[in-house]
């Protein structure tokens, strides 16, 4: 017993870095505290890891905000993750979150800017997966990207043909492959299974949507936005309707 107590005491005495402390706040879904802690660390030191994690916290804050505040968080996230990449161009996480941030900012842009963003998102995800093929976040965002491509309307496709010579290739089948890969790499991440279920809904494969959602609702939320996803999944299971 004394030996066990010594081990526990020694473990508790191990210093925790500022970034690790901020991570704890992030995983507790206290994004405001996490942001303050990442920023305090970055005021002392330029740190690629802290910048992409700051971007992640801003992005998650935007996901649970609305209107101008949501856009503000997304744009701050994009700025932070760009700083991460400038400091370290070998970090797969930074490129994956850059793609996610760029896609979120594109929501507030016009059709031409959205189309241009498609190429930036795809390039970032290709880099993320080249650096780390097991990056489940990159696979999940890639699945969402292909899902969005599959749902682009005729007008936006014509704009793409006019200004950029067309859109990148990809659609629902590519989205399914990417999201299934994300699920296989991180089976307990609710977001991956939710996105797969939404894909099947858009693809008119609602039996598969139900299967994905029923499993996803057994998983523990990892982000505050997961609570909104759970609400949408519950509505689908009750009414076979998926609110947007």
What does it look like?
By secondary structure, the chain is mostly helical. The chain contains 13 helices and no strands. It is globular, with a radius of gyration of 19 Å.
Estimated radius of gyration: 19 Å
CATH superfamily of the domain at 16-108: Tetratricopeptide repeat domain
CATH class of the domain at 16-108: Mainly Alpha
Bulk shape: globular
CATH architecture descriptor name of the domain at 16-108 = Alpha Horseshoe
Query: How far apart lie the N and C ends?
Result: 56 Å
Biggest sheet character: none
CATH third-level topology of the domain at 16-108: Serine Threonine Protein Phosphatase 5, Tetratricopeptide repeat
Structural class: mainly alpha
Strand portion = under 5%
* Helix and strand sequence: HHHHHHHHHHHHH
Mean pLDDT: 89
Give me the number of helical elements.
Answer: 13
Walk me through the topology:
Blueprint: H1 2-13, H2 18-27, H3 31-44, H4 48-63, H5 67-87, H6 92-106, H7 111-131, H8 136-150, H9 154-164, H10 172-185, H11 190-202, H12 206-216, H13 225-239
Short note summarizing the structure:
The model is unreliable at 3-14 (pLDDT under 50).
Give the key terms.
single chain; mainly alpha; Serine Threonine Protein Phosphatase 5, Tetratricopeptide repeat; globular; disordered N terminus
